[in-house]
Amino acid sequence: MRAYLHTPDAADPVRDLGELDPATRLAEVVELQLGEQLWVEDGDDPVDSSMPLAELTGGDGASRGNGTTPAVVHLQRHRRNRITVVVSYNGRTVTDDYSPATTIAKVQRRAVRALNVAAAEAADLVLQQRGATESLDEDEHLGTLVGPDGEKLELDLVPAHRFAG
């Protein structure tokens, strides 16, 4: 099983923990600092660091967090339990709280639903940080974006840049 650790450290935001035996306990490969917890990607609650990697898959081949195959597990290390995310679109705003392991893709899906954006319109939208010009990678974790002490993230839902050719 391959594992990746996402961190709030801007200098080293994603670490490849390598190929690990499914019986490996999280605490053996992830060092948590005082106050930090560990989440599986897109999971809402922290996981117990004494559990083996195999338990993250539920034993039936389905991940507890993002539905990926058990061959790859993405983890997030962070101090905050929740991050408040404000998404703005066409003068409307939606605010929700997420775990630091939540991906941009999940935030976008929820925001599109909450803002009642039509499916055809939503297909051409991306999220970017307020004031930025680059769209965010849909696999990026909120905990990586806000840094170690961040608790709020402001995002804009904007049209994706398309190149005519």
Architecture overview:
The chain is 15% helix and 30% strand. It has four helices and eight strands. The protein has a four-stranded mixed β-sheet, with no helix packed on it. A four-stranded mixed β-sheet has the order 6-5-8-7.
The SS-based structural class is alpha/beta
Task: Report on the biggest sheet.
Answer: 4 strands, mixed
Amino-to-carboxy terminus distance: 42 Å
The sequence of SSEs as H and E is EEHEEEEHHEHE
Q: Which CATH architecture of the largest domain?
A: Roll
- How many structural domains can be distinguished in the coordinates? 2
Q: What percent of the residues sit in helical stretches (DSSP H or I)?
A: 10-25%
CATH topology term of the largest domain: Ubiquitin-like (UB roll)
How confident overall, as mean pLDDT?
Answer: 88
Shape: elongated
What is the count of helical runs? Answer: 4
Please tally the β strands and state the result: 8
Strand order, sheet with most strands: 2-1-4-3
Percent of residues in beta strands: 25-35%
